[in-house]
Amino acid sequence: MRIGTLRCVRRLQCNSKRKSTHIPKPIGFIDEKVDTEIRAEDKILVSLLLVLALVAVLLIVLLWQRGIMPGNKPIEFSRLNESNIQNLTLTIYFTEPFSTFKIPPKTVHQLITYYVPENEVIVIKSDELCKHIDLLKQIDSVCLKPVEEKKELHLRIYYEFLDSKTKRRYSVSMWSQQGSMGVNGVEVHEEELFYNVILPFLAENQAQELEMFIGRKPIEVLEVPVDPENLWQGYTKE
Q: Is the model's pTM score more than 0.90?
């Protein structure tokens, strides 16, 4: 009887030892295998998000360059009429095309900031633009051809239309070393219409010089009016 009792006691002790060696896993514990799988899924998800973000950035840049981003759409000249043209203003920054600069302006910012004095900026209001509305409507019908190889810019002229109501813009810059133009930030081949658009608003000597520069008129020496009172302005006797 005692022997049987001792055997039962020993069995109970062995079972209690076995149970005591088993350590329960804490709540929220994840096996190493499962953890590895989750990490792999996270990496795939992060990679997909990065790819989508990159595609979105490239799309935004492309749309912005083409001028069709919301809030930055080009002006639709074909829809101009006497009522909606009232919000339109044309600003022209003009330097002599034949002028030679030691360091020519290579950006629009340089041209309008350092090369065109503020008092020489030409601003055309809507009342004057109304007289040339048929000319402006032709802009939308122009087929622009982007250049394959971009060249360094040597800007002489920049102008932009601004709609004060919709904040839409339409800008043209001239020229690159190969004679191309910038239209809404995109470099395109030369288009004659963009000369015609500003010619009516330039001073007589400016219009003549532009037409000589683009080959419409033979090159000749222009008489520049001189103000006798300012003839010696800036001269210092040594």
A: no
